[in-house]
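Q: Structure tokens for this one, please.
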Amino acid sequence: MADAVLQAENLTCIRGDRRLFSDLSVCVRSGELLYLQGANGVGKTTLLRALCGLLYPDEGQISWNGKPIREDGEEFFDHLLYIGHQSAVKSELTPLENLRVSCALGGLYPEDGMLWLALERVGLRGFEDLPVRMLSQGQQRRVSLARLFVNNALLWVLDEPFNALDADAVVVLQEVISSHIDQSGLVVLTTHQEVMLTSAGVRHLRLG
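A: Here is the predicted structure, written as tokens:
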């Protein structure tokens, strides 16, 4: 397909009696990464969820390739991979089972060999068949991030993806993000850690 474009126009989001942001506009294109910055509580997660269509802004519009996602959500969600700041894994399932379920929910059914390789890439070799409840917080985070290696989504939206990761896992995550951008993908993320995000085009948006 032609270059993809995620565009937000004149967004306003209010939570309770607090206006998190207003008149916010931003555009991200294929081969670009949008680095969302700001202190805790300024609305970063709210904006990420709005960009994913998981909540509606109080004002403004979000479009994918020129079409409002409210009107053409099915096509948009086919191209979206969202990983929130919570690991969002089932504690009674193993990492392999969690990854298999996540893929199936996205309409993907890769062979187990690909799933094992993805888990190995995130440093979970030897832990694939343990219940997730037996893993550390960082390892549980890696289970969630393994989805980055077995998806075909153009748009990745990542909320604090580097949280609870050790140095080796940070390097692996940086590499897969850079590779996705190099292959004309789009990434929107927020992180408090100082990391080398990508050598490609990085756009910055600071809230608050």
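A few notes: The mean pLDDT is 91. The chain has two domains: 1-79+153-166+184-208, 86-152.
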